[in-house]
Amino acid sequence: MVAALPKNLDEDGFYGIRLESIGGLGAHVAGQLLAEVGVLRLGLNGSHFSSYGSEKKGTPVKSYIRFCSPDQIVRSNSPIDRPHLIAVFHEALIGREKVAVGLRADGVIIVNSVASPREMKERLGLPGGTIGVVDALGIAVAESSRPNMAMLGAVTRVAAFIDLEVVKATISETFGRHYPHLLEGNLRAFQRGHDELRLETFPLEGEWATGVARPQPAYGYLNAPWGGMVINPGNSATKDLSASRQGFLPGLDMEKCVHCGLCDIVCPDYCFVWETYTKEDGKSGVRLVGIDYRYCKGCLKCIEACPTDALVEMRETEGYADAHRVVLFPHLAQGR
What we know:
This protein is α/β, with parallel strands linked by helices. The protein has helices spanning 27-41, 117-124, 136-143, 147-158, 164-178, 183-196, 262-266, 301-305, 320-324, 330-333, and strands at residues 15-22, 45-52, 60-68, 85-88, 108-112, 129-134, 198-202, 248-252, 272-278, 284-291, 311-315. The protein is globular, with a radius of gyration of 23 Å.
């Protein structure tokens, strides 16, 4: 039996899915599972590939899945620039990446978030359309899984031609063979993502203009600097690493802090802010005053090093980092 694709295929006869994520959240694996289900189990033709830079946690990842009828040959290996479905695995990407670019007017975008669909519509800047939200991170924490399973469940609910039970069987086969101790948690996370997705369709207010997802290189033969000069060198002092956090950050309890400096020793990104002060005996000392969360990528190494439990793992909530940030470079923070 071949799955029945929806009628709103693109001009090339494809149904396109794009997963927007960062390394470590499992978008590549989710894309692989979707492609396996569609091609090997539901009788469709299709393809999958992912695009990413340095292969490490926290870096942007895009995963593309195409499906078409079994009598059509897949000849395209290009990124999907007009997707029917976009799933955003990390809401911090909004504003830093153009996650909604290319979305069709009759498409759906899903975001891993605790916000409402209406709030997400405003954050995405969309004039309408169908928007879904699911707390994939919360589900992952509760079920000892990863956000990709909950997001996969949400995607399966929107792409109704992908049979829910077939996806479950594929998950069972994959994890049962390699990670049997994780199988039940992943299945529960998948089902909860499917069931707890909140979808809402908004009337179109204005022109639908999400553009086309065809990024161009920054430089070409017409505008490349002479002599291969690097005119924008990498500089960690101006780099915002907050978008690479996977939903958790270190919370600091100053009453428990003994200013030992172990956190600063293990921190790879210079997040901790210190000040010099004069002690009661007249000697100078150094003490911790806080964390600049702009540079914190959520590796949580500082928590492991802290001997007094002054640093604790926290699930990041909207606005917490900004409210508790102590600026490391005040002269760079002006105007932001």
